[in-house]
Write a structure and sequence with these properties.
This protein is of the alpha/beta class. The chain has eight helices and four strands, in the order αββαββαααααα. It has a four-stranded mixed β-sheet, with helices on both faces.
């Protein structure tokens, strides 16, 4: 039901002119649409727009070009849809106070689509990952991992690619600091941080390193 409502809102807001209480603005290749007029969403819009204008490296991640901003919920990118939902308030992050984590989230959600488009390579990588972390090594506490086992394994790939892309954008030290503080999927992110060489080798062997990862931005 929630997905149907979101799809309807997208069709109304993106396909037609928006009301005065919503913002619909293009920044480079991307389009930003606010779904409510809350102070948090408006602050997120301001921060996100500045991020897109400043960090041209994000143009390397353009699988989904529409960003829907709302106050509550958690960031997500529904499969086979053209949009990403970002939230100003969640139990894990306040993006309006942390642009670097917002950057990480954008990269994370965009890379879901890249991995989905490379299913054969993803499956080869998952076979190797499961040999290193069999099911009995995955925490059963869902506050530590993703919603289910399949998603947890896939997020090991996504979260490593997120770290890899973030390093290319803001540098090694800054990227590891951001990833180390991520509150969602804590076991996955800590596993990624502690096993970077292993995961990099796996994704190199399976040709799953995103080829358009942006070069580090000049300071």
């Amino acid at each position: 039901m929630i997905k149907k409502i979101l799809v309807l809102m997208v069709s109304l807001l993106v396909g037609c002119s928006t009301s005065p209480h919503h913002v619909d603005e293009s920044v480079g290749r991307f389009r930003i649409v606010t779904l409510d007029d809350s102070p948090g969403t408006n602050r997120l819009f301001t921060v996100f727009k500045k991020l897109l204008e400043k960090d041209k490296a994000l143009e390397a991640y353009d699988f989904r070009k529409i960003f829907l901003l709302q106050e509550n919920g958690r960031p997500h990118s529904p499969p086979k849809e053209s949009y990403i939902v970002l939230t100003s308030l969640s139990r894990t992050t306040n993006y309006t106070n942390n642009p670097s984590e917002l950057l990480a989230t954008i990269i994370h959600e965009e890379l879901h689509e890249f991995v989905d488009q490379n299913q054969k390579k993803r499956d080869l990588a998952l076979e190797k990952i499961k040999r290193i972390w069999p099911e009995d090594k995955i925490p059963t506490d869902r506050s530590q991992v993703a919603d289910d086992l399949k998603s947890t394994y896939e997020h090991i790939i996504i979260c490593y690619l997120e770290l890899y892309g973030l390093k290319k954008t803001i540098g090694d030290e800054g990227a590891e600091k951001v990833i180390g503080k991520r509150k969602m999927y804590p076991w996955i992110y800590q596993t990624v941080l502690k096993n970077q060489s292993v995961l990099n080798d796996i994704l190199l062997e399976t040709d799953l390193l995103y080829p358009k990862m942006a070069s580090r931005l000049p300071h």
